[in-house]
Design a protein that fits this description.
The chain folds into 2 domains: 171 residues, Efflux pump adaptor protein, beta barrel domain (Elongation Factor Tu (Ef-tu), domain 3), CATH 2.40.30; 130 residues, Helix Hairpins, CATH 1.10.287. It is 47% helix and 25% strand. It has 6 helices and 12 strands. A hairpin with a 6-residue loop joins β9 and β10. Keywords: Coiled coil. This is Putative efflux pump membrane fusion protein.
């Protein structure tokens, strides 16, 4: 029994010693590598209501993964549905107005055709009357007819000419009615387009009563609950984008001055035996923790600049359930472009 206890103690000491040795080695970074502690951050999106209304149901659960377009919150939509039905009814009335205007135009076109036929007939009668008048005048010259006959033929011609003018006036009036019907059709068609736009607007407003996820993400908080009355622009759900994972670290002036956006970086999190790849996405131009007067070299050394390390989207998506906002760890950057990553900072993803 004593032998077993002795072996257990020796094993524990060996494991503990190895862990202590690794911790000591990790704390010694080679030249050209700088580190700073930080916390993981996931991009937060506050989903808001476009319209005011009463919350009918909250369909999103905190911590649940959602897809873009999934319904998160449903608002009471009786008013929007009524407006949509009203707009649809108005659109039907406008389409019926177009049909009536088109039917009226067809009738007026038939009237124009009949009027043109009357004009053609009147002109033919005028030509015949002109021939008979001319013939009567020739016969009068040969004293084969009387003057009264010539006068009668002339009166027939003049009546035929007047009939032509009347028929042409009737035709012109029918054509004007056709033009008017075209304008009525155009006005009715414009009303149809306007009614269609109103239907789309009402349908959009009615659909917006269903508040949907704008991205694939994870529900962080439910801000609104069923029964709440929310105003236009009020937040209802907070989403996290699991593909937008970053860590902010702070480095002194002498370290950040040699960094560039796009440089490689590494992230090591507490409690996870892994090294995640990262990239410098942002370097602050304004210092943090600035002393009141920056005059001496010691004071300048106190200036700290924020550096944002971004985890690649593919890596963030692959380990979306593992990487959580608020996790603590360390970020590592190269202050010398020629420096090599030490073996303990080689990319090593969790299994």
């Amino acid at each position: 029994m004593k032998k077993i206890i002795f072996l257990a103690v020796v094993t524990a000491l060996a494991v503990g010693g190895g862990w202590y040795y690794r911790q000591q080695q990790q704390g010694k970074l080679p030249a050209g590598i700088a580190q700073s502690n930080g916390r993981l951050e996931l991009n937060r999106i506050d989903v808001a209501s476009l319209y005011a209304g009463r919350v009918k149901a909250v369909l999103a659960e905190e911590g649940a993964d959602v897809k873009a377009g999934d319904v998160l919150v449903e608002l009471s939509n009786e008013t929007s549905e009524s407006r949509l039905a009203e707009a649809q009814a108005a659109a039907v009335r406008q389409r019926e107005a177009v049909s009536r205007a088109q039917a009226a135009q067809a009738q007026t076109k038939q009237s124009v055709a009949r009027a043109q036929a009357n004009v053609d007939a009147a002109r033919q009668q005028q030509r015949v009357a002109k021939l008979e008048w001319d013939n009567a005048r020739r016969l009068l010259a040969d004293r084969l007819v009387s003057q009264s006959e010539v006068t009668k033929r002339q009166a027939d011609f003049e009546r035929a000419a007047a009939a032509v003018k009347a028929a042409e006036a009737a035709r012109d009036e029918a054509q004007a009615v056709v033009a008017q019907s075209r304008a009525q059709i155009a006005e009715a068609e414009a009303g149809v387009e306007q009614a269609g736009a109103a239907v789309k607007s009402a349908a959009s407003a009615n659909d917006d009563m269903l508040i949907r996820a704008p991205i694939d993400g994870r529900v962080e908080y439910k801000i609104a609950e069923a029964g709440n009355v929310v105003g236009a622009g009020s937040r209802v759900v907070s989403l996290l984008d699991p593909t937008d994972v970053s860590m902010n670290i702070f480095l002194p002036t002498d370290s950040m001055s040699r960094l560039k956006v796009g440089d490689e970086a590494r992230i090591r999190l507490d409690g996870i035996d892994a090294v995640f790849p990262a990239e410098i996405k942002f370097i602050a131009t304004d210092a943090q923790f600035t002393p009141k007067a920056v005059e001496t070299a010691d004071e300048r050394a106190k200036l700290m600049f924020k550096i944002k390390l971004q985890v690649p989207i593919e890596t963030a998506r692959q380990f979306g359930r593992l990487l959580k906002g608020g996790m603590t760890g360390n970020g590592f950057v190269k202050t010398d472009a020629q420096a090599e990553w030490p073996s303990e900072l080689a990319v090593r993803l969790p299994e």
